[in-house]
Amino acid sequence: MSGTRREALPLRHVLTLPTLGSAVRIARETTEQVLAEWGVSRLHPTIGPALLILSELVTNSVRHAAVLSPNVTVIYAAGPDTFAFAVHDRHPYQPPLFSTITHTSGGGLGTVLELTLGLGGTAVTRGDADGKGKSIWITLPL
């Protein structure tokens, strides 16, 4: 999906949390609340995998970025047939997303990519303009 289409998604929500272990649970619960407010059923077949993807990305920020990033931010966007979210931190390292598919580590970015692509979605890493942070955007069809 192009950046233009994601920016056209009318529903938006932003959540910023301290980069602590509790961020994973809070982000997951907030995602469920936001989707419910937007009329997306928790039983929709995309939502369970989306929550796992989100949890893995927030966990990665907590584990690997907290030393340089006191906060992690989750940005949500949705439209009639699309749910997109990004996990942003202020650590400069941008993991090579697609090389993770070949590694069978049993979790992390490999799981994120496998689930995202399996749902017909996309994953993109976007660096901050100053080079000191990044967002990993996941876009999933609803």
TrEMBL record:
InterPro entries per UniProt: Anti-sigma-factor_SerPK, HATPase_C_sf
Domain of life: Bacteria
GO MF, one example: ATP binding
Keywords noted in UniProt: ATP-binding, Nucleotide-binding
Record has Mitochondrion as a keyword: no
KW Nucleotide-binding (keyword) present: yes
Membrane-crossing segments per the record: none
Protein name: ATP-binding protein
Organism annotation: Streptomyces castrisilvae
